[in-house]
Amino acid sequence: MSTVTAKPEASREAASEKDKWLRAYRQMVRIRLFEEQVNELYTRALMPGLAHLYSGEEAVAVGICEALRIDDYITSTHRGHGHCLAKGASPDRMFAELLGKEAGYCRGKGGSMHIADPATGNLGANAIVGGSVGIATGAAFASKRLGNGRVAVCFFGEGALGQGSLYEVMNLAQLWKLPVIYVCENNLYNEYTHYSETTAGTILGRAAAFGIETAAADGQDVRAVNEVATRLVKRARAGEGPAFLQADTYRYSGHHVGDINREYYRSKTEEQRWKTDRDPIKLQSNWLIEQRYADAAALEQITMEARAEMEAAVKFAVTAPYPSVDQVDEDIYA
Amino acid sequence: MSTVTAKPEASREAASEKDKWLRAYRQMVRIRLFEEQVNELYTRALMPGLAHLYSGEEAVAVGICEALRIDDYITSTHRGHGHCLAKGASPDRMFAELLGKEAGYCRGKGGSMHIADPATGNLGANAIVGGSVGIATGAAFASKRLGNGRVAVCFFGEGALGQGSLYEVMNLAQLWKLPVIYVCENNLYNEYTHYSETTAGTILGRAAAFGIETAAADGQDVRAVNEVATRLVKRARAGEGPAFLQADTYRYSGHHVGDINREYYRSKTEEQRWKTDRDPIKLQSNWLIEQRYADAAALEQITMEARAEMEAAVKFAVTAPYPSVDQVDEDIYA
Amino acid sequence: MPERELTFAQAVREALAEEMRRDSSVCIFGEDVAEAGTPFKVLSGLVEEFGAERVLDTPISEAGFTGIGVGAAMTGLRPVVDIMFGDFLTLTMDQMVNQAAKAHYMSGGHWKVPMVLRTTLGATRRSAAQHSQSLHAWFSHVPGLKVVLPSTPYDAKGLLKTAIRDENPVVFFEDKMMYKLKGQVPADDYTIPLGVADVKREGDDITLVATSSMVQVALGAAVLLEKEGISAEVVDPRTTWPLDEKTILDSVKKTSRVIVMDEGYGRYGVAAELAAVIAEGAFYDLDAPVKRMGAMHVPIPFSPPLEDVTVPTEETVYKAAKEMCAKS
Amino acid sequence: MPERELTFAQAVREALAEEMRRDSSVCIFGEDVAEAGTPFKVLSGLVEEFGAERVLDTPISEAGFTGIGVGAAMTGLRPVVDIMFGDFLTLTMDQMVNQAAKAHYMSGGHWKVPMVLRTTLGATRRSAAQHSQSLHAWFSHVPGLKVVLPSTPYDAKGLLKTAIRDENPVVFFEDKMMYKLKGQVPADDYTIPLGVADVKREGDDITLVATSSMVQVALGAAVLLEKEGISAEVVDPRTTWPLDEKTILDSVKKTSRVIVMDEGYGRYGVAAELAAVIAEGAFYDLDAPVKRMGAMHVPIPFSPPLEDVTVPTEETVYKAAKEMCAKS
Ligand SMILES: Cc1ncc(C[n+]2csc(CCOP(=O)(O)OP(=O)(O)O)c2C)c(N)n1
Ligand SMILES: Cc1ncc(C[n+]2csc(CCOP(=O)(O)OP(=O)(O)O)c2C)c(N)n1
Ligand SMILES: [Mg+2]
Ligand SMILES: [Mg+2]
């Protein structure tokens, strides 16, 4: 892992504001360019199966993961590349996993929807909507019991509000004052259905009912997300219990790479509006320039570096070997 | 079914206040005496298995069922005798079911925890905590779709707040504006654990989060329960959607008939306090006398009639035959 | 009877549309079943014809809306509940097993639950372990449920219509990989009874008992075997419960050799039951032990070369059958 | 090795207490597990010794706290999750099957899930259809899980200790009706490996392969058979996964006749798998078809005379065995 992508440590507090927000920018750009490559791999029929792109939502994963320690836990979703990268995974092994190669994070057994990485505390993406709410809460339970000070962040889309187990574990998290943060990435759609058709009442009310600390953040504003996350993480680490963060955001692409004709469920105008007015990378780039933390050339330099990194990573993955067939029945039991 | 126990019809509105509240009193007394017989049957080792007594909670079932039409639906719980009687079932066939006799409501196949009765809209008691929240909501869905004006009441203990499916169906009920009323009988205990140890936040907040109409009622006051229930049923029948009612109450006996030594989880003083100060039957009898709707003798007469009814019903059940063994594989498929 | 070629998906849709026209109590709900017509587009056009009161998009609440299906079925509707991937059946087990399957019996025959749970099975779609399972064995194990596994467009239409008209909860499994498979399907109303196996191909030397996705594999293997002069009979039980033991046993008694194939895990699975039934019922007729072929006992891996070896193929079945015929 | 008589419940409790003393990462949670010690009083005294941080009462949230068990197991604890009645396993299927069973494989071997799900099975307690099921076949069907079915106090202690130390998710089924059964149990630390069957009684004429509650029934039947001069061998697999096929097959090869008995439904159940394994592995040694005996294929009825006929008894097994020996 090169220093530019290094996972920030606790000492981060000391780092300058400038470095901090440039790194956040870089992380978002890396995610965006990673996803562009995924789409490309799919279009070129190099990727088995499907993938769910995170483009548009980068500020959420980055804003939150920048508030975490490397040994803090996250659980992620079918739309998990962003969380995974933001927590510190390497794109080369991620692409390898997406292509089912042995060098992948899961030796090719997991694929896009199951990338996991103990080294960065990533307990795994999950292809069951809401499937990891118990896992994240359990990790927080273990952290508390073992006294290791770790916090667990549970990422999920607003569609997971439909899963009853979320309410079961929020109740337990609050009763047991567990250091877990539930992050609801509200990108407005459950697959092909607008969330207003599937969500009665309010999102934050769902957590507030259990006495859980709640907060909302503009999910396109990485600084806003990071500010709230920092506060909630601090609370959780101090033993003050769980929190629930609603981050409003938008996915630019289809539900998955194959979801091309979307007009029956959302308009091109809507998509365009988000991309033009609310793009998290543009917003952050404008701000960085405004603050004179960087000029356009410096930001372009970051993009070029990230692009080179992703291209090299794809190359690595494309040429990497598949696992040998006899590995199929390894790893069933530990 | 004798007239005294007849299920009130829609025409009830016209009946005098006096008759209405005397009937409510009678219904509560019948439930209390039914349960006394159940305990007796258990103690005399005449009843197979266990049963969960409703004594102490009578005002909830009666207050609510008196606000319903006979063709409205209810779903009930492991502690279901009260709901069943309040909705209009006959004690003789109920006792027969408790003893596993062919004359029972379920031909002996269900027992205490599964009594169901289409004639009175009782979709069944359920031995899975929260197991009937979907069924009640589905009945409301069918009522709405078929336009038959029926309302569904879903009874459950506060322990069912732990089941995620409750939140799933409340969300759907509100989205689809279904005529269902969730009645949470908060008797303070989930088996042997105080509900405060299992319930974070607030009970009503759980429903309010979904935008559902909420209400609370003193579960020892049959008139208070009935008043709220009448309002919520009217709303639901008018197409205004679901509601959630919290009724605070207390079970006098153990979790089940075999739960005799309870001091490790609740004090005798606490039990005594509820029985002395908050007994729903006493409260109603005092009020009836105060209002001059009845004197002590008239109320004693009601008790005697109910006792005779229950004794006869037990006798019927005890002497009724078991199903023949070849019935074991009948009713698996319709 | 006018026949046309339909895909498996079209046959399913036609069955639903016909039943919805015939009976206004039939309704559909599940995730993205309305405008989207499910991710597999199986239900496209239904909401347009029958309206949003009868084809309803739900939140992602499998337990909740399955439960609503149970209650609605008890009180006058015939819901067809859609569970997008069979893997999500894990979330419906309480409602299907503790409620739907038992309501009739526990009530002494008073309540009925005429609902259909439509879902998918099958691997090799590069979807990894949580989107590739074939969990029909669980439901086949539970009295009170019926389990249907159509293997052709023709069967899909006829069996689904029967399932909808059935007074009991029926779990209907469709192989995701089969949606584009074409076959002749009558345009008119016909039904296929549950519990009647179908001999998909006649033969004398060996019986291949195959379900769902494995039927096409068995038929392919039979073609390969034919070239070797081995005549294979392919028997498709079509429903695992009720199970048509007689047709299966008659075939085995004729051929004396049998391979049972099912895409679920073979261990403690459907293949185990079929093998046990045959080993008992055709004990004196078998020339060789029953061979089971099912999914390898591993979570389904994502990586294509690994995934491909977890499921029986025409080749592996052909080889196993040839070996069996050579030996005995 | 000092031995004492303990009940099955005491043996379970002793295993838990010993493991909790040995390893501070072991903790227990479930409904009413602390002061109440479960409705069956199996856990009485544990919260007093180990404190409320290690023995935790939960809300009635089987899916939720099972999921918490999975996550806790991945991150350094060894949770023993308590599901009061096996019937409530329906609510844990997603967490056990889609998460616990697959986390190790899907992560390419990176994460481990060393958790135990303790639960019950068995009927005849007059508890009706939702409190009498034996659902271990479902879990045995799923790769990534191990399934344990102790039949004596001795086995319960030794197997539970092994299960807790195992690095994988283990589902541990206890027969509710057996909690008061007494047997010799060593006071010291011993473990019994998973995947090793136990010959509970030796015999020559017929093998009774029996699991859990059915072991005692088989032993009772064997005594009755002895009086008729029939010598029955009773083999207890003790774990359905891993399954010790060799010990079972060796016995069957010796006796040539076999009845497999399991309290789950026989159809698509554990008895089917055992029958299939034997029919295949001992094909040339069997004098008669394998006979399966399991719960009758009905939801368990409440009424005592009905419930009593749904489960194999010493009498019915004795009769079946006698008939089998007479015939062949
Ligand atoms: C339990 C379950 N039900 C259904 C699905 C199918 N599915 C995959 S993603 C998805 C929509 C998820 O929406 P949301 O949670 O908002 O996440 P997003 O895709 O918007 O990021 C659905 C229904 C699933 N994977 N798991
Ligand atoms: C899903 C499920 N989990 C656990 C149980 C065991 N159980 C039966 S009653 C009960 C307590 C229920 O408490 P509550 O809902 O408050 O009802 P109450 O008994 O107080 O009327 C429990 C845990 C069950 N029947 N179903
Ligand atoms: Mg979304
Ligand atoms: Mg209670």
Can you characterise this structure?
The complex is a heterotetramer, with 2 copies of chain A (334 residues) and 2 copies of chain C (328 residues). In chain A, helix 5 runs parallel beside helix 6 (164-175). In chain A, 43% of the residues lie in helices and 10% in strands. In chain A, the strands form 2 sheets. Chain A has a 5-stranded parallel sheet, with helices on both faces. Chain A has a two-stranded antiparallel sheet with strand order 4-5. Chain A is of the alpha/beta class. With 328 residues, chain C is an alpha/beta fold. Chain C contains 11 helices and 14 strands. The longest helix of chain C has 15 residues, at 8-22. The N and C termini of chain C lie far apart (44 Å). Chains A and B meet through helix 6 and helix 7 of A and helix 6 and helix 7 of B. The structure holds thiamine diphosphate (2 copies) and magnesium ion (2 copies).
- Total domains of chain C: 2
Number of helices of chain C: 11
What value does the average pLDDT of chain C take?
A: 97
Q: H/E order of the elements of chain C?
A: EHEHEHEHEHEHEEEEHEEHEHEHH
Distinct ligand kinds: thiamine diphosphate, magnesium ion
Oligomeric description of these chains:
heterotetramer
Approximately how much beta-strand content do the residues of chain A carry?
5-15%
Our count of helices of chain A gives 11
Query: What is the spatial order of strands in the main beta sheet of chain A?
Result: 1-2-3-7-6
Return the domain count of chain A.
1
The stretches of 5 or more residues of chain A where confidence is low (pLDDT under 50) are 1-7
Described by the principal axes of the CA atoms, the overall outline of chain C is globular
The CATH homologous superfamily name of chain A equals Thiamin diphosphate (ThDP)-binding fold, Pyr/PP domains
Describe the sheet with the most strands of chain A: 5 strands, parallel
Q: Any idea what the CATH architecture of the largest domain in chain C is?
A: 3-Layer(aba) Sandwich
CATH architectural grouping of chain A: 3-Layer(aba) Sandwich
